[in-house]
From TrEMBL:
The keyword Kinase applies. InterPro entries: PfkB_dom, Ribo/fructo_kinase, Ribokinase-like, Tagatose/fructose_Pkinase. Pfam families: PfkB (PF00294). Keywords: ATP-binding, Kinase, Nucleotide-binding, Transferase. GO terms for molecular function: ATP binding; kinase activity. Residues 11-282 form the Carbohydrate kinase PfkB domain. This is Phosphofructokinase. SUPFAM superfamilies: Ribokinase-like. Belongs to the carbohydrate kinase PfkB family.
Length: 314
């Protein structure tokens, strides 16, 4: 089973408008309300692309039940670990204007109770070496340490796409997959513009992670696989970006799900890049038909270990 976890879910109000002016009355054209959270984003896309998966969330009961029609529509296999004492799940506002203005207002993250933590640990302790757990977003570090300890002891493969300043601590648990973006790489590994990205990825791999997928935003992504091969993928067409929400979640989840299934690096990277490119061209997450239509625009090449940044940054 492929399992994703969203530790701090939300309800996202996504607003589309012609333009936006600060200190003015602004009117919007369209809006949508979706459940938010990196693990939920990943599971929705995986479901749409035909990958069997399950997701764990921590919504309060009322909010979770109010989203029942969404879970049914997406046919999402979701386990919600609620705590009746938990405050109402946070609401986020994301505004996208056609004049390129953009802003987000994110509510305070939910706290997870000991009751919820224990229920999560019970689920994780029931897994085996044939399962995969994808951990995304912001996680309380003490809880994340306990989760990694359980998964390593159970020999369960897992992936990390987490927001932490102590990533090296968790790489020591030898995650099968790690998906940083270029900003996280610069922050966590003090990368400067003169440092070689490929050599930095090799250093990260030496710290424990088997496969590393680095998102470069509009310039594509770089993969260092478990056989120590480098690949660069990018999209060879101009994309009109509508929303970047869920793009990284799409990229990471589709790549590792397809790679676990096929063990084909190139095909997995092309599919993941197509899905991520399609996601940014939508107001929300991609669907299968739209994603597959982007495959013809995706380019991939194998990189040499001694290449410098200017050889592969477009």
């Amino acid at each position: 089973m492929f399992l994703t976890i969203t530790f701090s879910p939300s309800v996202d109000l996504i607003i589309q408008t012609q333009d936006f002016e600060i200190n003015q009355l602004n009117r919007y054209k369209n809006f949508n309300i979706f459940p938010g959270g990196k693990g939920i984003n990943a599971s929705v896309v995986l479901n749409r692309m035909g990958f069997t998966n399950q997701t764990i969330s921590f919504f309060d009961n009322d909010t979770f039940n109010n989203l029942a029609s969404f879970w049914q529509k997406e046919n999402l296999n979701i386990i919600n670990i609620a705590n009746n004492k938990t405050k109402t799940t946070r609401y986020n506002v994301k505004m996208f204007a056609e004049n390129a203005s953009f802003f987000e207002l994110n509510g305070p993250k939910n706290e997870i109770s000991n009751f919820q933590k224990n229920k999560l640990k019970k689920i994780l302790n029931s897994l085996n070496k044939n399962d995969f757990v994808y951990i995304l977003g912001v996680v309380e570090e003490e809880l994340l340490t306990q989760i990694c300890e359980i998964l390593k002891k159970k020999q369960v493969k897992f992936g990390l796409d987490i927001d932490t300043n102590n990533i090296e601590k968790f790489l020591a648990f030898e995650p099968y997959f790690y998906k940083p973006n270029i900003d996280e790489l610069r922050t966590n590994f003090k990368l400067t513009k003169d440092d070689n990205i490929l050599q930095t990825l090799k250093q990260i791999q030496a710290k424990g992670s088997k496969n590393i997928l680095l998102s470069l935003g509009q310039e594509g992504c770089i993969l260092l696989d478990e056989k120590q091969n480098f690949y660069k993928s990018w999209v060879e067409t101009k994309i009109k970006v509508k929303s970047t929400v869920g793009a990284g979640d799409t990229l990471g989840s589709v790549f590792i799900a397809n790679y676990l299934k096929t063990k084909n690096v190139a095909k997995s990277l092309i599919l993941a890049s197509a899905c991520a490119s399609s996601t940014v061209s939508q107001w929300w997450l991609t669907k299968k038909k739209e994603a597959l239509s982007f495959k013809k625009y995706i380019k991939i090449k194998k990189l040499k270990n001694d290449q410098t940044n200017k050889d592969f940054i477009l």
